[in-house]
Design brief:
By secondary structure, the chain is α/β, with parallel strands linked by helices. The protein contains twelve helices and eight strands. Strand 1, helix 1 and strand 2 form a beta-alpha-beta unit. The structure holds nicotinamide-adenine-dinucleotide (NAD).
């Protein structure tokens, strides 16, 4: 798969999944604009990619404000002549249940994930449309956004919204030959290390060098590199017809997330009163949806 005439921006790519995406894109020939808030991390990423023979520069700036998005696109154009691929990956966690979520935590998470995705995609699309040669939007979602997750009010909201925007963009951008897809990864990174359910397994994997099949297959959690190939694939010409999809990737597993559909449809002439609905609920309740991610009992110690 040859991306040698393509130019990518990957936000939050100093470390973790973003760095793995940037390295894989560079390995396949793309020039990559690295971005991070942390200069040391960004510089290290640039040195690593250059050592592999890749073409790259860093923009040290916080994703969220429009100015950063403009700087990212301008750098791609000034340094490498164009922009073909925008990967919105930068992210933070401020985990708390809703009654302990502060305005500051909510705004911080939504600024990076939701506003950052919106501003970067808008700038990329302006450039793609001006170039007139299509483009690739790849936005990073999360299982937490697809299913909900206890203690992740801000994060699950932002990630669900990102996938919602991707579906809209896939419709709006089709005529311009621009695809928009979401990727919901799961990988052992600094971010997942902070999650109690994964922490012991990731710590023991650091010692043994391998993640157990329970993680790699059953819940699809592997290394950052395991989740990188899908970004390169979606960025390639081979994925020109793939748009509006949400991929699940991690460890040895790949899958598509289903889109919400209506189920248990009933009709009542002249609309539904509260009493009509109470009478109908026993039928409708058969179609109730579960919430939250479902983990194997071996991982949770028996509970859910
Ligand atoms: N690790 C997982 O299992 C997992 C699961 C689902 C989704 N994700 C998503 O994948 C993305 C990357 O996660 P990760 O696990 O590699 O996290 P990470 O914490 O290891 O890396 C995130 C990087 O983003 C940078 N960053 C933070 N705020 C930024 C900002 N405003 N502007 C630019 N850079 C910023 C950080 O400095 C860091 O280098 C995130 O969007 C995350 O929500 C990760």
């Amino acid at each position: 798969m040859d991306l040698s005439n393509k130019v990518a921006v990957v936000t939050g790519s100093g470390r973790g999944l973003g760095l793995a995406y940037a390295k894989d894109l560079a390995r396949h020939g793309a020039a990559v604009v690295i971005n991070d808030v942390d200069k040391e991390t960004a510089d290290k990423a640039v040195a690593e990619i250059r050592a592999l023979g890749g073409r790259t520069v860093a923009v040290v700036a916080p994703v969220g404000p429009t100015e950063t998005a403009q700087q990212l696109v301008a750098t791609a154009v000034e340094e490498f002549g164009r922009l073909d691929i925008m990967v919105t990956n930068a992210g933070i966690l401020r985990d708390a249940v809703v009654w302990k979520t502060s305005d500051e935590a909510f705004d911080a998470v939504n600024t990076v994930h939701l506003r950052g995705t919106f501003t970067c995609v808008r700038e990329a699309v302006l450039r793609f449309r001006a170039q007139g040669a299509g483009g690739r939007i790849i936005c990073i979602g999360s299982p937490a956004g697809q299913r909900g997750n206890f203690g992740q009010t801000s994060y699950s909201g932002a990630k669900a919204a990102i996938v919602g925007m991707v579906r809209t963009w896939s419709m709006e951008l089709q005529r311009a030959g621009i695809t928009a897809n979401a990727v919901c990864p799961v990988a052992a990174t600094a971010m997942t290390e902070t999650m109690p359910i994964f922490r012991p397994h990731i710590e023991s994997a650091k010692k043994t060098g391998t993640l157990p099949a329970l993680l790699r297959r059953d819940i699809g959690l592997g290394t950052a590199d395991d989740a990188a190939g899908i970004i390169t694939f979606l960025a390639s010409d081979e994925a020109a017809d793939i748009t509006g999809q949400a991929f699940a990737i991690g460890g040895d597993r790949v899958a598509l997330w289903t889109h919400p559909q209506l189920s248990g449809i009933s009709y009542h002439d002249n609309g539904w009163s509260a009493e009509d609905l109470a009478a109908e609920w026993p039928n409708l309740s058969e179609h109730r949806e579960s919430v939250g991610e479902e983990f194997p009992a071996e991982l949770t110690g028996g509970g859910k």
